[in-house]
Amino acid sequence: MKDKKFWQGFLGGALCMLAGILLGCVILTANGKLDLRMALQWNSEGILNSTLQHKMSEIQAYVDQFFLDDIDQEKMQDAVCKGMVNGLGDTYAAYYNEDEYQDMKEKTSGNYCGIGAVVSQSATDGSISIVQTIKGGPAQKEGLKSGDIISEVDGVSTQGMDLTALISKTKGEAGTKVEITVLRQGHQKKFTITRKEIHSQTVASKMLDNGIGYIAVSSFEEVTKKQFRDALDKLEKKGQKSLIIDLRDNGGGLLSTAVDMLDRLLPKGIVVYTKDKNGEKEVYRSTDKESFDKPVVILVNENSASASEVFSGAMQDYNKAVLLGTTTFGKGIVQTVFDLPDGTALKLTTAKYYTPKGRNIHGTGLEPDIPVTPDDTKYTLEKSGLTIDNQLQRAVEYLKNK
Fold this sequence. Notes:
The chain has ten helices and 23 strands. By secondary structure, it is of the alpha+beta class.
């Protein structure tokens, strides 16, 4: 993962800290360049123009003179920074205090202490819902389900809350408790969950009938790279003739992980590229060290987003896989996380990404080659006796003829 570091501070007094910028951390990463001369030109076109700085000084003067209670300076500075970012109107932008940022880094590493649930945030209304509960984890044991909308954490409303901030609140020391309130089919339900150490197993695999391998990937974390390669090698040793990769309900994660997985499957070439606000292009490529030349079906749905779409779009563009299921989420933009000197961080949308054939699917998603709407029908495989759903059954039927 390529890292990028940026700035921290409170109003005008913190601007001098820009001189200490180092380039650092990213999710769905893109290399960015920061022109310090431009950043320090706080003229009438800048966010902190002279009028706003004067207004903030006036507000501070009133607060200092008349506010009754003591001021929590750290809380105040966090609120100002968060408000500045919220004003961008970008659902995916966020300011993280030190604790929130540490939690985010733990999550993307794949090892953390929390409730064991994968969550995603709606780009339309900002609501945060559970996509998946980790098998055997606290959330699953207490009865949380995919589709539950998290409305409160420890009595604090999640309205307007950034996804990473919510995740931060659900984490804590093993053995401590957190109260989660969810909306399920229009009704509120409360759960008290005891946190525990979570070691993310983001990849699961098995052999289906007719030499068809199956790999399910729940998210693109740092640990996913090795887990995916190990699963593929294991199936190869068992003599797989074709492969199903299940990315349904996979909300994405690290671009570097998606690129690594594509490098294992595709021949040498472009797998994805990004363009920033200035039209500057950054290209990510696969090497010619490894490839996979057997038939592949990728299962997708409306919750397959971001890095899942990078992966699926590249495989589709190279004609190395067919997509089966329903239209994907449609998140074709890149967020870069900038490390700030005091351990806090800033996340901004910095670029659009494009598939090898130049498709940007933001707001539209990837259309499946084989559209299959999920239903409640269950099927039993003849040889293995495994029970599968209708979309997986359709993928098996497709590959049996390959």
